[in-house]
């Protein structure tokens, strides 16, 4: 081993060594000083002020030296050199005959001796070389080439080297080392070959660089493998995040497009159009929505799986883009279901409204037709002045006829009011053809007012001339007076018997049957009135026959003939059984509807409790510690299959529900379960079984990743269930009980890990993560930084070339695309900041 005090003797033996040492030591110093962005050209001149000497020691030791003096005076330079020499001595190095003054004065021998001391301490301390044979090992160049070939066989084809070409061998080694190993050329091939005994210090200095280069390569390989592993995990997680973002965006976009359709409350004007809207809504519930329910469930499962993988790889939790959290999707889905429910209620309400409108419109038309038929020609009749040339008997007849007309007019007042009331109701219900209804109603009202005016005017005229004539035949008058109200009663009876009706229950149709029976009970009295009225006509005929009076024309006091009364009476008798038949048919329809109600209720009262029972059973399975996780998964899969097999019952209930809606059945007193209740319960059951299976899958993933045994998992579950059971029995919460056992300070630390959102509730998955996290061996940001530092040759930055040389292409490009540019003094243009990149990988800064 060469000692420091051999220096003088070596230089005296061969002064030519000084040339070799100056070149070698200068190149060695520059290989380290370039890391600090500086170089030296003349070793004794550039180290005289001590500044670059102190900088060299800081670079090779990685430690900070005392602050140098910036002055240019000699004592400033001596002070700086002394600081460097003191630092060398502090490392256990004995300096022989080397003083600061000699270095400041440019003493070549002392300067080279000091540099050799530094090289021995920091580069060759643990390397032994046999001094007597050093030159023999390296002069032919084969040893250097063999050293390179041993560690990097891809750089030199050793089989093609020749022992008789030492200069070629040496130059090959120098060029390969400089180009591929970042070792500068410190020796000259001609000097080594042509010098009987080359300077061993120069050769040892150069060879030590190979030692450090190859040692660094092994560290770089280890560091590269660690980085590749970390980057692979990060790339996989980013892919899962992108898939979640895509699926969440598509689901939210579907909800965004669907809600406006369900919020559209523009009613159609006809029943068929509204029925089509209802059918479109059924298609949405049966065809379009179920796949989206599955997508929503799968989205939650993917999110939970991703978070579990992030926890296992010591990565920060995934935070989706704004508005795409699982809670945001759940809120959007809740809003969709609220709008959906309101839309269905609106559809049914609009169908009832249109049904009512069509009934009222038809009733309005019937009453208007009857009224217009009655008023036809009445204005012309009231405008006649026939009394001016009439005889006494004719005047009296005209007066009585007018009184009968007034009686008839008063009887029709109720119909006119009914017509106006129906028109008003149609307007209030927003009937689509309200303009036609209003025009017809206004025409009838105007005509009615005009009839009243003309009636009063004719009465005044007849009363004025009545004093000139004698009393009109009482029998005709009595017939007219009795026939008019009876005729009006028959008109009303025929109108009622033909009146349309809408009912929704047996009770309502029974009420109509009761009213009809009451009407039939009045028929005997009506028949007596008919016979009494017809008796008057018979009395007239009898008197005419008795006294030989010749009757000419019709009854002068009324347009109602005995034949009219007989015909209408026969019509009433025919309409009664027809009304009976219509009511009985409606009874049959309502009974059929009642059977549908009972059929739906019978199934709903079974399905509803079944769903609730399955929810409770799944809850019990999730907290049961008996058996392994795989057995629990098998049980849950069996539950899932049973639930899927039960879907046919839901479909059958949907069919009965559709039949009920087609029959316009809107209520059911036999069950508290509506189809909406069953649908919501079914969707919750599907979601619950899927979430529970996902929780067990995550537990298996955690167990396998962390190496947890089944017995440990059972102990975790027993402990978790113990706290949960105690909470249910004595009313204490998990955190209160846990704090009693572990202390307030430790409890606060634990709760920040297992309940980051401060909800007061600890899930079993969070409990397992806490129990395994404390002992798990995971990569850290500091480890990744240290690995990058090795690849970067201890620099605080790494270049693009170094990344591409040390890492596989995919991982290298991944780093290059995400690392920020390093900003520092004398940093190259392609310098990248690996420190901030490593922190971002573990959530300590933004990537």
TrEMBL record:
Record domain EF-hand: where: 742-777
Keyword list, A-Z: Actin-binding, Calcium, Coiled coil, Metal-binding, Repeat
Chloroplast as UniProt keyword: no
InterPro entries linked: Actinin_actin-bd_CS, CH_dom, CH_dom_sf, EF-hand-dom_pair, EF-hand_Ca_insen, EF_hand_dom, Spectrin/alpha-actinin, Spectrin_repeat
GO molecular function annotation: actin binding; calcium ion binding
Domain Calponin-homology (CH) residue range list: 19-123, 138-215
Keyword field contains Calcium: yes
Coiled coil: 230-257, 395-429, 629-656
SMART domains the record matches: CH (SM00033), EFh (SM00054), efhand_Ca_insen (SM01184), SPEC (SM00150)
Taxonomic superkingdom: Eukaryota
PANTHER family cross-referenced by the UniProt entry: SPECTRIN/FILAMIN RELATED CYTOSKELETAL PROTEIN
Family in the record: Belongs to the alpha-actinin family.
Protein name as annotated: Actinin alpha 3
Annotated source species: Astyanax mexicanus
Source organism phylogeny: Eukaryota, Metazoa, Chordata, Craniata, Vertebrata
């Amino acid at each position: 081993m060469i000692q420091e005090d051999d220096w003088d003797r070596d230089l005296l033996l061969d002064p030519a060594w000084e040339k070799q040492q100056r070149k070698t030591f200068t190149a060695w110093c520059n290989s380290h000083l370039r890391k600090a962005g500086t170089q030296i050209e003349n070793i004794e001149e550039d180290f005289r002020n001590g500044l670059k000497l102190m900088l060299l020691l800081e670079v090779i030791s990685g430690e900070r030296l005392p602050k140098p003096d910036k002055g240019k005076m000699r004592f400033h330079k001596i002070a700086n050199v002394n600081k460097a020499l003191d630092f060398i001595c502090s490392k256990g190095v004995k300096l022989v005959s080397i003083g600061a003054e000699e270095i400041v004065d440019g003493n070549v021998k002392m300067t080279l001796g000091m540099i050799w001391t530094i090289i021995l301490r920091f580069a060759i301390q643990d390397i032994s070389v046999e001094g007597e044979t050093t030159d023999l090992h390296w002069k032919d160049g084969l040893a250097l080439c063999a050293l390179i070939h041993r560690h990097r066989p891809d750089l030199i084809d050793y089989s093609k080297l020749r022992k008789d070409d030492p200069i070629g061998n040496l130059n090959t080694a120098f060029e390969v080392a400089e180009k591929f190993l970042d070792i500068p050329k410190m020796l000259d091939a001609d000097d080594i070959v042509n010098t009987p005994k080359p300077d061993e210090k120069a050769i040892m200095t150069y060879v030590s660089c190979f030692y450090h280069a190859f040692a660094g390569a092994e560290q770089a390989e280890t560091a590269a493998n660690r980085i590749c592993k970390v980057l692979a995990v990060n790339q996989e997680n980013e892919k899962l995040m992108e898939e979640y973002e895509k699926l969440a965006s598509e689901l939210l976009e579907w909800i965004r497009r669907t809600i406006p359709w369900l919020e559209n409350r523009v009613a159609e004007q006809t029943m068929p159009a509204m029925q089509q809207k209802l059918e479109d809504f059924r298609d949405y519930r049966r065809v379009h929505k179920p796949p989206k329910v599955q997508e929503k469930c799968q989205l939650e499962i993917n999110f939970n799986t991703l978070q579990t993988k992030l926890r296992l790889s010591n990565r920060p939790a995934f935070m989706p883009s704004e508005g795409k959290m699982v809670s945001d999707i759940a809120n959007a889905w809740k809003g969709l279901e609220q709008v959906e429910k309101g839309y269905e209620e609106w559809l049914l309400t609009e169908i009832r409204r249109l049904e009512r409108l069509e009934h009222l419109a038809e009733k309005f038309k019937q009453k208007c037709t009857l009224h217009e038929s009655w008023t036809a020609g009445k204005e012309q009749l009231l405008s006649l002045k026939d009394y001016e040339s009439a005889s006494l008997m004719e005047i009296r007849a005209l007066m009585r006829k007018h009184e009968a007309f007034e009686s008839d007019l008063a009887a029709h007042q109720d119909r006119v009011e009914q017509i106006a009331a129906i028109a008003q109701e149609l307007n209030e219900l927003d009937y689509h053809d309200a303009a036609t209804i209003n025009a017809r109603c206004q025409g009838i009202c105007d005509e009615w007012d005009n009839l009243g005016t003309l009636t009063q005017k004719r009465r005044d005229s007849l009363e004025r001339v009545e004093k000139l004539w004698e009393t009109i035949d009482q029998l005709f008058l009595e017939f007219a007076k009795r026939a008019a109200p009876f005729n009006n009663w028959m008109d009303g009876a025929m109108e009622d018997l033909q009146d349309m009706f809408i009912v929704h229950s047996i009770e309502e149709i029974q009420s109509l049957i009761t009213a009809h029976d009451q009407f039939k009970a009045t028929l005997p009295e009506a028949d007596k009135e008919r016979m009494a009225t017809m008796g008057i006509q018979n009395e007239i005929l009898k008197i005419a026959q008795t006294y030989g009076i010749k009757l000419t024309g019709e009854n002068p006091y009324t347009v109602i003939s005995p034949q009219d009364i007989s015909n209408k009476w026969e019509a009433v008798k025919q309409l009664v059984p027809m009304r009976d038949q219509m009511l009985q048919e409606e009874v049959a329809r309502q009974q059929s509807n009642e059977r549908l109600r009972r059929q739906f209720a019978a199934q709903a009262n079974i399905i509803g409790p079944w769903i609730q029972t399955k929810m409770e059973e799944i809850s019990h399975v999730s907290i049961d510690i008996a058996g392994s996780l795989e057995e629990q998964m098998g049980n849950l899969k069996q539950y899932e299959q049973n639930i899927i097999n039960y879907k046919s019952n839901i479909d059958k209930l949907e069919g009965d529900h559709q039949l009920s809606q087609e029959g316009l059945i809107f209520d059911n007193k036999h069950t508290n379960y509506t189809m909406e209740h069953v649908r919501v319960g079914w969707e919750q059951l599907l979601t619950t079984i899927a979430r529970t299976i996902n929780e067990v899958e995550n537990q298996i993933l955690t167990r396998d990743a962390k190496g947890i045994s089944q017995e440990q998992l059972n102990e975790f579950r027993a402990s978790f269930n113990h706290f949960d059971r105690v909470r249910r029995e004595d009313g204490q919460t998990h955190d209160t009980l846990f704090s009693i056992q572990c202390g307030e300070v430790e409890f606060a630390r634990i709760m920040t890990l297992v309940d980051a959102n401060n909800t007061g509730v600890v899930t079993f998955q969070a409990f397992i993560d806490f129990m395994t996290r404390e002992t798990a061996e995971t990569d850290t940001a500091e480890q990744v930084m240290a690995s990058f530092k090795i690849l970067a040759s201890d620099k605080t930055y790494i270049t693009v070339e170094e990344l591409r040389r040390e890492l596989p292409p995919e991982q290298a490009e991944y780093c290059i695309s995400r690392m920020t540019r390093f900003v520092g003094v004398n940093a190259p243009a392609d310098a990248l900041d690996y420190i901030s990149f490593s922190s971002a990988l573990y959530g300590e800064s933004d990537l």
